[in-house]
Amino acid sequence: MRLRNKPGAMDTIIANPQYILTDGSQWRGKWQDRFEKEQPIHIEVGSGKGQFIVEMAKAHPDINYISIELQTNAMISVLEKQLEEKLPNLQLLLVNGADLTDFFADGEVSQVYLNFSDPWPKKKHEKRRLTFKTFLKTYETISKPKAQLHFKTDNQGLFEYSLASLSRYGMTLNQVWLDLHHSDYEGNIMTEYEEKFSAKGQPIYRLEATFNNK
């Protein structure tokens, strides 16, 4: 979905360095210093307009969250939510999620969220899917031993691909939901896309998996 340009978006981003960075490389290995408390760090790669990660930060004050998004017009929406909430456990990073090792040290992250990522359905674009093996390697590198990856999508093809990709990579699939909203899962926080798709009656797929790094 193409997002409408928001006038003054970059000015707002530049004016709020306490919440958002356009280059986080200087904080590599030092992200805890940007938070009020030293707590486990969870990241969402591709935050969209930020409903999920803002609500997660509100619901779990004992965890530090970092929103990662490439599109300025999406990230400004996350920043606007944060300027209203002023959550001490939420930071924003406007960068390309493919380069995470430039921004996070080995073992700095405790959990990774992927929500409604671009499915890149054509076979020739497989390497762009955020559950492709090179991305999994990146997540594993920046994560603590036995960190988890949580993934949600409405796209059945991407979900099936991701199940196979994670299994081939050697991850442990802890739980799989083929219709999340009609399951007994509790505490689900929806993204904007999730609300839209579920309202149309589309099933939401979800998984939790563990990296087997030591």
Automatic annotation (TrEMBL):
GO molecular function, a single term: tRNA (guanine(46)-N7)-methyltransferase activity
Keywords for the protein's UniProt record, in alphabetical order: Methyltransferase, S-adenosyl-L-methionine, Transferase, tRNA processing
E.C. numbers: 2.1.1.33
Alphabetical list of Pfam families matching this protein: Methyltransf_4
Record's catalysed reaction(s): guanosine(46) in tRNA + S-adenosyl-L-methionine = N(7)-methylguanosine(46) in tRNA + S-adenosyl-L-homocysteine
SUPFAM superfamilies membership: S-adenosyl-L-methionine-dependent methyltransferases (SSF53335)
Function comment: Catalyzes the formation of N(7)-methylguanine at position 46 (m7G46) in tRNA.
Name used for this protein in its record: tRNA (guanine-N(7)-)-methyltransferase
Organism: Vagococcus teuberi
Classification of source organism: Bacteria, Bacillati, Bacillota, Bacilli, Lactobacillales
